[in-house]
Design a protein that fits this description.
By secondary structure, the chain is mainly alpha-helical. It starts with 21 loop residues before the first helix and ends with a helix. The longest helix is centred in the C-terminal third of the chain and has 17 residues. It has a three-stranded parallel β-sheet with strand order 1-2-3, sandwiched between helices. The chain contains five helices and three strands, in the order αβαβαβαα. 45% of the residues lie in helices and 10% in strands.
Length: 110
């Protein structure tokens, strides 16, 4: 699919990142996308927020409770909704800053 869309030079799939290296990835990311259908708690959401990374996550399961008002919520079954949320966060610096600020506050109460 990557080849057909000519995205080989734009997207990298990185597997098995050591836990100690995760904060660097969160720091460098424009957004953290967590479109899970079911999650027991959602610790990666809080890890991303603690690093100042804006979070886009599912509006199902425990994600809304974990993220509070500090994330952009999507239906994980709707591709268009996911892509629109990614575009919004990447293009809207004000939204990025708002999610970062709310994320720092959310980790204090989660």
């Amino acid at each position: 699919k990557m080849k057909a869309l000519q995205l080989e030079n734009c997207v990298s799939f990185i597997e098995n990142v050591p836990e100690d290296d995760l904060p660097v990835f969160y720091l460098l990311a424009k957004a953290y996308l967590f479109p899970s259908l079911y999650e027991g708690f959602g610790l990666p959401i809080l890890e991303a927020m603690a690093s100042g990374c804006p979070v886009i996550t599912s509006n199902v399961s425990s994600m809304p409770e974990v993220a509070g008002d500090a994330a952009l919520f999507i239906d994980p079954t709707k591709k268009e909704e996911i892509s629109e949320a990614i575009k919004s966060v990447i293009e809207n610096k004000k939204l990025q800053k708002e999610l970062q600020k709310k994320g720092f506050l959310q980790i204090l109460i989660a």
